[in-house]
Amino acid sequence: MQPKYIESNRKNWNERVPFHMTSELYAIEDFKKGKRELRPFEKELFGHLKGKKVVHLMCHIGLDTISLAKEGAEVTGLDLADDAIVEAKKLAQECKVKVNFVAGNVYEADKILTEKFDIVYLSYGVLCWLNDLTKLFEVVKNLLVPGGRFVLIDDHPFLAMLNKDLQIEHAYFSNNEPERVEPEGTYADRTADIKTESYQWWHNVADIINSVKAAGLTLESFNEYPFGFWPRGCTAVQHCPVRRRSHRQIHATDRADHSERGWDERRPSGSRPG
Ligand SMILES: C[S@@+](CC[C@H](N)C(=O)[O-])C[C@H]1O[C@@H](n2cnc3c(N)ncnc32)[C@H](O)[C@@H]1O
User: Fold this and answer.
1) Please, are residues 36 and 30 in contact by the beta-carbon 8 Å criterion?
2) Is the CB of residue 130 less than 8 Å from the CB of residue 108?
3) How does residue 261 score in pLDDT terms, banded at 50, 70 and 90?
4) 38-84 pLDDT tens trace
5) In terms of DSSP H, where are the helices of the chain?
6) Ligand 1 atom closest to Cα of 64?
7) Which of 16, 54, 58, 86 to mutate to test the pocket of ligand 1 (most atoms within 8 A of CB)?
8) What are phi and psi of 102, to 5 degrees?
């Protein structure tokens, strides 16, 4: 990826950090009081964490990274935005949790980090910041011990096609050209004064799965969930309930949990998540 895109994204994410630290969405004060931990389906994906070495790539301000450490894992978090890493370190200290936070570009994570990990984790709004998924997954493979596991949770590519009215506005398929995204606040605060544009890439399901294969990883499971993680996903689920009642009941708690955190949709029409 061209350095100018990385640099612009780094600045954009650094600018978001102070707004995220005081946002309702991240609810840092509640987090410090221990009110947020890993979600049940995440715990299921990780399995037993005690004593495991875990690296959380693109960890942002480190909330889920710290939660992993609270489960007994030995955790490293890495993110491009150095301001996010500064806040993550402070937060870990305040929570009295030991985490090794490092600033860096994920494409270089296997050079920056010299150790190997039982689990590599990437989560919630990550693939759209990267143009070359095969390269990303090769880095993941290099970071894993033999037999180690890679856990990736991200938005469904279908979601990126929708505008705020849940109408299809963007193509599902895209070329490898970046989309220049004008700053319009940040998803946690649409009024935030963000000045730097960002660059994003849109990947379809086949691209993701084929890149996992091309990097030499073995796909063990691929899940789709009937609930959302970000404002648009929550709105989509609320307005388009899944058909089978049993499904809705199973996941009712997840959705309530998200809406309680104020994950409503305030993004202007025509823009993608991000
Ligand atoms: C939406 S956040 C991810 C959320 C985070 N995983 C969590 O659980 O809170 C996206 C993060 O990716 C980081 N990022 C973007 N491009 C990156 C890159 N090339 N290398 C490392 N981190 C990157 C941003 O700085 C930002 O913190």
Assistant:
1) yes
2) no
3) very low
4) 999 999 999 999 999 999 999 999 999 999 999 999 999 999 999 99
5) 3-21, 28-32, 40-46, 63-70, 82-94, 109-112, 133-143, 205-214, 231-239, 245-260
6) 8
7) 58
8) -135, 135
Which residue, among 233, 243, 257, has the nearest Cα to 164 in the 3D structure? Answer: 233
Tell me, in angstroms, the distance from the centre of ligand 1 to residue 130's CA.
10
Pocket test for ligand 1, best of 60, 86, 99, 187 (most atoms within 8 A of CB): 60
pLDDT digit string, tens, across residues 118-150? 999 999 999 999 999 999 999 999 999 999 999
Question: Which CATH architecture group holds 3-160+167-225?
Answer: 3-Layer(aba) Sandwich (3.40)
Please report the atom of ligand 1 found closest to the CA of residue 61: 9
Q: Is the dihedral of CA 105, 110, 116, 120 positive or negative?
A: positive
Q: From residue 8, how far is each of 3, 16, 105, 196, 274 by CA, in Å? A: 8, 13, 13, 7, 14
Distance, in Å, from the CA atom of 150 to the CA atom of 219, rounded to the nearest integer, reads 9
